[in-house]
Amino acid sequence: MRYIYSDCVVDCLTLCILQSEQSVSGSGLEAVSGDCKSWHGGETSRDNRECKMDEKISCLIGLQTRSNFYKVEAGLITLLRNCLESETENSKSILSSYIDHFQSLNYEDAGWGCGWRNIQMLSSNLLAQRPEAREVLFGGSGFVPDILSLQRWLEIAWEKGFDAPGAAQLEHVVYGSKKWIGTTECAALLRSFALRARIVDFGPKESQSVVGTSVDNTVDKTRNDKMTNSKVKKSEAYQVLMDFVWNYFSDENAVQFGQQHVVISEKT
Question: Which of 20, 127, 149, 209 would staple 145 via disulfide (CB 3.0–4.6 Å)?
């Protein structure tokens, strides 16, 4: 079996699964501090906080910038499908639905931007596949913002109360920084737009709570053998993650192979 999945954020064996185009480089958000003076400090009453939040969101919607990406004619997933179908080996492949590829750039985010790029890829799928998500994501802009804009959106999510522990760990500020982010930040950002997101942790111990036949078998084997070698445990946890992804996308209600060996799942 071959695992190809494009709309999952994986960070330290953590998988975030969602339930629910390409132009300018640079960002107008460099002017945020000067043009939108309500980002920090100010009143503490509830009414004033809500007013202040509305001002921030309105400001961000007007200043956010589309992110660059390499546009593949007919789409990246179609290209992958054509390549896989040309192979003669006996294998089965499942592809996620539409997605754009946002790659890290040496002059912009090399070494720290992978989490933000994953969010951009997830967002491209939602914008293309889910009308209800397109209406709410990034103020209904209809495009995937650049990293600086996403950093502001995450800070807004924190101010709304999403992922308070994560906000505290990153000192409530990510804008303009090279701080690493992961699955919880992705979930917080998406949830702040009223989109459902579920985080499944595949650490060696936490994986015991995962539901699913192949997952349970792997967990039982890990428990019964009482493995102590950390490398072996990580390998087992990785396999649990892989099994989970395959089972998720190959659900019989979403995928029917028939005579095909490459299919596109209806799931996102």
Answer: 149
Alpha-carbon span 145 to 68, nearest angstrom: 9
pLDDT of 65-91, one tens digit each? 999 888 888 888 888 888 888 887 778
How much is the mean pLDDT over the chain? 75
Q: What is the mean pLDDT of residues 179-184?
A: 95
* pLDDT of 12 higher than 80: no
How far is it, in rounded angstroms, from Cα 196 to Cα 45?
29
Which among 213, 205, 209, 200 has a CA at the least distance from the CA of 241? 200
Side chain identity at residue 191, one-letter code: R
Name 202's Cβ contacts closer than 8 Å, sequence gap at least 6: 13, 14, 15, 210, 237, 238, 240, 241, 244
Alpha carbons 208 and 238: distance in angstroms, whole number: 13
Q: CA-to-CA distance for 6 and 184, rounded, in angstroms?
A: 18
Number of other CB atoms surrounding residue 193 within 10 Å: 19
- 189 with 9: CB under 8 angstroms? no
200 SS3 class: strand
Label residues 46-73 b or e (16+ Cβ within 10 Å = b): eeeeeebeeebbebbeebbbbbbbeeee
User: Which secondary structure element, helix H or strand E, spans residue 14, and what is its range?
Assistant: strand 14-18
Burial of 92 (0-12, 13-18, 19+ CB in 10 A): middle
pLDDT for the residue 264: 83
Name the helix (H) or strand (E) containing 17. Answer: strand 14-18
Q: 241 in helix, strand or coil?
A: helix
Mean pLDDT confidence for 131-145 = 96
127: number of Cβ within 10 Å: 20
